[in-house]
Amino acid sequence: MFIQTEDTPNPAALKFLPGRAVLDSGVADFTSRDAAQRSPLARLLFEIDGVAGVFLGSDFVTVTKAGDKSWQVLKPMVLGAVMDHFTSGAAVMDAGDDAAEEEFNDDGVDGEIISQIKELIETRVRPAVAQDGGDIVYKGFKNGTVYLNMRGSCAGCPSSTATLKMGIENMLKHYVPEVLQVEAVA
User: Fold this and answer.
1) Residues 128-147: pLDDT tens digits?
2) Each residue of 21-50: pLDDT tens digit?
3) 57 in any annotated domain
4) Contact 45, 54 (CB under 8 A)
């Protein structure tokens, strides 16, 4: 098995491409060992000292390291764990668990506006950030503000504020005049 790696804009996150499907649909974001209980792969990765986050996409695994750890030390251990998991034939997610968890908080805003915002995020934003090992999820729209949750390599990325304000916010304002600003939420 050959696993490729790709740098992400976030120096604390590295994208691992095992050359096969990771999740059939949706994404899964684990920011702690406790949160990873529903994923055998994530549990295995959190056993490595220095792993601070695991994000699973359709064909990639993004691992975020603790700030004081070096990729030179962590990368071989993560590669080994990913290879061990996939060659064992174990499931990536426990049976019955749904990878996507999206909750919306729109407070009765016009459905057409929300549909436009969601469509732009799904068709233009999410595919682009997935290339960098992350994800951005719509969380709500209230008083002209779009609330987005940043996951994977996007969470904690030094350039995430620029991505939100100069990229996503400008695009949404252009296509949906009711959008005044974009903010990140947990």
Assistant:
1) 888 888 888 899 999 999 99
2) 999 988 999 999 999 999 999 999 999 999
3) yes
4) yes
CA dihedral 95, 96, 101, 102 (to 10 degrees): 140
Q: Which of 150, 122, 147, 123 is closest to 136 using CA atoms?
A: 150
Question: With a cut of 70, which residues of the chain have pLDDT below it?
Answer: 96-109
CATH of the domain at 179: 3.30.300.130
Q: Is residue 155 part of a domain?
A: yes
Using the CB atoms, write b or e for 136-148: b if 16+ within 10 Å: bbbbbbeeeebbb
Q: How many residues does the chain have?
A: 186
Backbone angles phi, psi at 5, to 5 degrees: -125, 150
